[in-house]
Specification:
The structure holds 2 protein chains of 2 kinds.
Chain A (H helix, E strand, L loop, with lengths): L1 H5 L2 H22 L5 E3 L3 E4 L3 E4 L1 H10 L5 H18 L2 H6 L2 H14 L15 H16 L9 H11 L4 H15 L3 H6 L1 H9 L5 E5 L9 H5 L14 E2 L10 H5 L5 E5 L5
Antiparallel strand pairs in A: 1-2, 2-3, 4-5, 4-6
Helix pairs in contact in A: 2-8, 3-7, 6-9, 7-11, 8-9
Chain B lengths: L1 H4 L3 H30 L13 H7 L5 H5 L6 E2 L11 E2 L30 E3 L6 E3 L8 E4 L5 H4 L5 H5 L7 E8 L5 E8 L9 H5 L7 E4 L1 H4 L13 H4 L1 H4 L8 H9 L2 H6 L1
Antiparallel strand pairs in B: 1-2, 3-4, 5-8, 6-7
Classes of the chains: A mainly alpha, B alpha+beta.
């Protein structure tokens, strides 16, 4: 039991944080709590200041509207927080879609669909094209383009305010990850993840690899949702610096050789 | 060796075109969907909402207005509602706007999609700007006179009485009922300039499907154009000065025509 807890430390911690944030939002809508009110697009914190999704605000800006200062400042806080501290941590520590895609991945393993021999002809860089496209479409059609279709928003807003047919979009993501492409949504498609990957250059927290301890068991590579970021595993010591790393800590959880841990960014020293 | 690694020029061009093709295909599909999904012409927005075109850009879908609404009138559009997803709206037949004097839904909007200035008026006494829900323009009530039982001659004035601006936004027009010869019609008539679009009338209407409905201003209101001016209205007459109307060169000719003998004209 103790070992299971230790081997899933970050996973459990992430789930607690993800679900707590959602619960605070739900309480904000239904029971009058004031800790977090709104949703992941824009939230009012402690009834005093706002936090906003910077990618949403950029789409709004592209569509031809400058939102009021409250929201702009809120977006700036979030942008700076992830750029300087969290990295791409939104994806694995906050985003509720992470729970859906992780479950799809788990089921994929249980159903022994865990193989790479069926090649789906899409590239991990697709998400950056989608990100660019979303800005262009926002400008062309005068409305935040990704927000109009985002299954992430449908999920968190669905839980907080009411789901409607949103479950269909969420099921779509689930099936895509389960049957079509492993980590397909978060690793190939999602432009929000792509946005945070791009801004993740100088954040403080980085995974650190110690090659001397590594037994090349490959457990981290199997579990990692963004496998290309782990290119240095078993080759050299150093920090995982690629922006796509979500700091989920799953690799640390599964490593039994103390070859991986969280560390402060050494800025390529 | 080198040739194996380097893709040929033809291969590169093919890949580039393929990529552009996929991007175009995706962009067109996505764009077409977004363009459809953002246009819900019949949607009723909270009080103080800026123009629909700007509203769908400005709204950050945080739900502050929905949480602030004490009557659960406002809802965020869910997928399947066929409205811009995540944006607030209300359906008066279900729950109408109760016209709170302190308008809790508007000042909480952090993005500028709901504008306090659009639901404020200046007090005459001390020139103070005050929240005034009666200046709201959420929509305009329209009566289907063919199914309104008051227009049949049956006595019903429920919309008139449900209206928070009774005798202003909805008036009762008295008419003799020629069919019976001894009764009166009491016909409700909406005053478009006063109606706020709260929908309390639509909510109250006794017919199976409401005979009075609130529709957005953009649907109801016409546009006169600059060439019609109310000559009896001083404010409206000022538009004459704004519009640089050229003197009609043919004015003399027209006068001559009017003053001339009709025989002259026939001779011509």
């Amino acid at each position: 039991m103790n070992k299971a807890l230790k081997n899933n430390k970050f996973l459990i911690l992430r789930r607690i944080i993800q679900i707590s944030i959602l619960l605070l939002f739900v309480g904000g809508n239904y029971w009058g709590w004031n800790i977090l009110r709104g949703d992941l697009s824009t939230a009012k914190v402690l009834d005093t200041f706002y936090l906003s999704d910077p990618y949403f605000v950029i789409q709004t800006f592209a569509s031809g509207f400058v939102v009021a200062a409250d929201v702009l400042v809120g977006a700036l806080i979030i942008l700076l927080f992830y750029a300087l501290i969290g990295g791409r941590a939104f994806c694995s520590w906050v985003c509720p879609m992470n729970i859906i895609t992780d479950s799809a991945n788990r089921l994929r393993k249980m159903l022994k669909m865990y193989r790479e021999d069926v090649k789906v002809p899409i590239n991990r860089n697709l998400r950056y094209w989608i990100l660019g496209l979303s800005i262009v479409l926002s400008a062309l059609f005068g409305v935040a383009a990704f927000e109009a279709v985002s299954p992430i928003s449908m999920l968190h807003r669905g839980i907080i305010f009411g789901m409607g047919f949103g479950w269909a979009a969420i099921l779509l993501v689930f099936f895509f990850d389960l049957f079509v492409l492993q980590n397909g949504w978060c690793g190939y498609v999602c432009p929000l993840g792509a946005f945070y990957s791009l801004t993740n250059k100088i954040s403080i927290f980085k995974i650190k690899h110690t090659v001397e301890n590594c037994t090349e068991c490959n457990k981290c590579l199997i579990v990692c949702p963004e496998k290309p970021v782990l290119a240095i595993i078993g080759k050299k010591s150093g920090q995982i610096t690629k922006g796509e790393c979500t700091n989920c800590g799953r690799c640390i959880d599964v490593c039994e050789d103390h070859a991986l841990k969280f560390s402060f960014n050494k800025y390529n020293k | 060796m080198k040739e194996d690694k380097m893709p040929s020029r033809r291969e590169t061009i093919r890949k580039l075109l393929q990529g552009a093709g996929f991007l175009g295909l995706g962009g067109l599909t996505w764009g077409a969907y977004v363009d459809e999904a953002k246009s819900a012409e019949l949607i009723l927005r909270p009080p103080g909402a800026i123009s629909e075109e700007d509203f769908v850009k400005a709204c950050v879908k945080c739900g502050e207005c929905v949480i602030a609404c004490p009557y659960d009138t406002l809802k965020l559009a869910e997928p399947g509602d066929r409205k811009p997803v995540g944006t607030p709206f209300f359906e008066p037949r279900k729950i109408a706007c109760e016209m709170c004097p302190d308008i809790p839904c508007v000042p909480v909007c952090p993005s500028g999609a709901l504008d306090v200035n659009l639901v404020s008026s200046v007090k005459e006494k001390n020139k103070e700007t005050m929240l005034d829900i009666n200046t709201a323009k959420m929509g305009i009530a329209v009566i289907d006179t063919s199914t309104c039982i008051a227009y049949w001659g049956i006595q019903c004035d429920i919309c008139y009485r449900a209206c928070p601006l009774m005798d202003e936004a909805i008036e009762l027009k008295y008419e003799r009922n020629e069919r019976t010869g001894k009764h009166a019609f009491l016909k409700p008539v909406v005053n478009n300039e006063v109606c706020t679009g709260c929908g309390l009338c639509e909510h109250a209407c006794v017919t199976e499907k409401s005979a009075i409905k609130v529709l957005p201003l953009s649907i109801i209101l016409g546009k006169v154009g600059s060439h019609y001016i109310k000559g009896w209205d001083e404010d409206d007459e000022k538009r004459m000065e704004e519009n640089d109307v050229e003197e009609d060169e043919n004015m003399d000719k027209a006068l001559d025509y009017l003053n001339s003998d009709w025989k002259d004209i026939v001779d011509e």
